């Protein structure tokens, strides 16, 4: 250990303060003793003995300060204190040295095409999945990470907000099959770069790069991993780069809900499976897309059958696939097998506590079982995990209305009112968001603006079953019963057949005694 390191170690162990304090107190004792002993004509050897004891006590004090430290919990060995808490020299604040939390920030797409965002986002998620299997490392969820895409917060502020010790950030450039990925691992508390690397290659090298980044993180943080965890770092759900690319593109369109986007995602999932017939994640995605298409647009039984088959295939190749179980839950939900659906989504959540889609399905199941108190917990969890999945705002409002919880209903409406303008600024083509914003505005008493947002939503996608159904709900809410029933009839005639949902939808409570409404759901 050189002199600088030795001095730094003395500072870290808080040796200097006790040493200075000891010298000051010893000097005071000598001064007082000199006066008192002189006054009482004490023998000279008493003063000499006192001086000798004080001199001997100084190195003993240093040794004690080196080994022990006073804490709010009593005297502890410095090593134990070090493990619990230390002080950042730059931020001058205490932090937990045992904090091993890592946040993988969304990789930036620095290519010429903005359409490649799906790839940089997918790369981020894949690295998170690889690292999440390491027990010694706390890794922030995919949904938490994605909330900080394009964040303007500095690194230290980000780390503090997320209570994370380490941040991984990176950038991706794709150009005609060439791939360039730059990465940087940062220690937030020290505000220092632990390592940085640039990886170049072809698209086929993407899996090797993901593995290298994951292993470098483990090495830099000196994590102890088991043989099983080491194998998991190098494991990928597919080793076909074309299948991986098609899968990521499919997931980009999956939750846009319109019929054309759902059909496009189904085609892309199939393309991924054409490249790799054992690709579990692609089967799970296919299952979700087919089940959603059946629920929202096309009541042909073949879609539910295809969804079920795809989910079961996904589970053959990956028995722990959370997405496959949540997709099965949606299949059973649409078959009105509510108990089977609940078991499936419970399984999905057990495998991935951050599966927002599973919470959303479970919340809807609770609402159909008239358990709205449980439903609101799940819908709030959805928004916590994925703030852009705005369907949950509408679900929350319906449940709070049913619970007659005016305070929470008001709070949810205000949250939605803050969310939608910014969301629609970035995604003005989202017809459902315009409609949900219309519901929010109506509940705030801004009917003229609400009608305009509803008009925009219908205009963007006038033949979409969900858009027509939402219009029926809106017109029922504002008291235009004829327009509501006309739109509901049109939705049913065009294939909307979830009559259990219609019966439990509080938007239609005002129509329950209307003969035309009764005729629509009679015997269903």
TrEMBL record:
TPR repeats lie at residues 322-355, 356-389, 431-464. The chain crosses the membrane at residues 20-40, 46-68. PROSITE patterns: TPR, TPR_REGION. Keywords: Membrane, Repeat, TPR repeat, Transmembrane, Transmembrane helix. Pfam families: TPR_8 (PF13181). The keyword Thylakoid does not apply. SUPFAM superfamilies: TPR-like (SSF48452). SMART domains: TPR (SM00028). NCBIfam families: TPR_END_plus. PANTHER family: CELLULOSE SYNTHASE OPERON PROTEIN C (PTHR44943), TPR REPEAT-CONTAINING PROTEIN MJ0263 (PTHR44943:SF8). This is Tetratricopeptide repeat protein.
């Amino acid at each position: 250990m050189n002199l600088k390191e030795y001095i730094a170690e003395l500072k870290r162990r808080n040796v200097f303060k006790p040493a200075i304090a000891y010298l000051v107190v010893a000097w005071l004792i000598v001064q007082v003793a000199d006066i008192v002993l002189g006054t009482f004509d004490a023998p000279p050897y008493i003063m000499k003995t006192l001086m000798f004891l004080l001199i001997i006590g100084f190195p003993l004090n240093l040794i004690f300060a080196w080994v022990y430290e006073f804490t709010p919990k009593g005297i502890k060995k410095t090593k134990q204190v070090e493990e619990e808490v230390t002080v950042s020299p730059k931020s001058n604040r205490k932090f937990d040295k045992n904090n091993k939390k890592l946040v993988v920030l969304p990789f930036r797409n620095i290519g010429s095409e903005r359409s490649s965002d799906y790839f940089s986002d997918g790369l981020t998620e894949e690295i998170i999945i690889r690292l999440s299997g390491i027990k010694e490392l706390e890794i922030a969820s995919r949904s938490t990470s994605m909330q900080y895409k394009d964040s303007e917060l500095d690194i230290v502020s980000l780390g503090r907000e997320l209570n994370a010790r380490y941040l991984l950030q990176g950038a991706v450039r794709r150009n005609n099959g060439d791939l360039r990925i730059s990465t940087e691992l940062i220690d937030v508390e020290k505000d220092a770069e632990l390592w940085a690397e640039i990886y170049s290659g072809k698209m086929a090298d993407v899996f090797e790069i993901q593995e290298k980044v994951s292993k470098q993180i483990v090495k830099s943080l000196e994590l102890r991993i088991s043989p099983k965890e080491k194998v998991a770092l190098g494991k990928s759900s597919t080793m076909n780069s074309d299948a991986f690319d098609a899968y990521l593109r499919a997931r980009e369109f999956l939750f846009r809900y319109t019929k054309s986007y759902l059909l496009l995602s189904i085609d892309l999932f199939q393309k991924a499976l054409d490249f790799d017939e054992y690709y579990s994640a692609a089967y799970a995605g296919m299952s979700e897309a087919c089940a959603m298409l059946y629920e929202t647009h096309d009541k042909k039984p073949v879609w539910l059958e295809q969804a079920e088959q795809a989910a079961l295939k996904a589970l053959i190749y990956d028995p722990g696939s959370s997405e496959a179980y949540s997709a099965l839950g949606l299949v059973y939900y649409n078959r009105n097998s509510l108990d089977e659906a609940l078991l499936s989504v419970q399984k999905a959540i057990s495998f991935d506590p951050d599966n927002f889609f599973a919470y959303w399905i479970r919340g809807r199941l609770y609402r159909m079982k008239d358990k709205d108190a449980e439903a609101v917990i799940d819908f709030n969890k959805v928004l916590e995990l994925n703030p852009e999945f705005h369907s949950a705002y509408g679900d929350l409002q319906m449940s709070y209305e049913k619970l007659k919880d005016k305070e929470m209903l008001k709070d949810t409406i205000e949250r939605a009112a803050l969310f939608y303008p910014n969301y629609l600024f970035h995604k003005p083509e989202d017809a459902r968001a315009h409609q949900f914003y219309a519901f929010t505005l109506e509940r705030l008493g801004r009917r003229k603006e609400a009608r305009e947002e509803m008009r925009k939503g219908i205009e963007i996608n006038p033949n979409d079953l969900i858009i027509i159904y939402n219009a029926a709900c809106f017109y029922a809410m504002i008291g235009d019963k004829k327009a509501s029933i006309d739109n509901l009839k049109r939705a049913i005639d065009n294939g909307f057949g979830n009559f259990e949902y219609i019966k439990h939808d509080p938007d239609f409570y005002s129509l329950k005694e209307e003969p035309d409404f009764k005729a629509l759901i009679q015997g269903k």
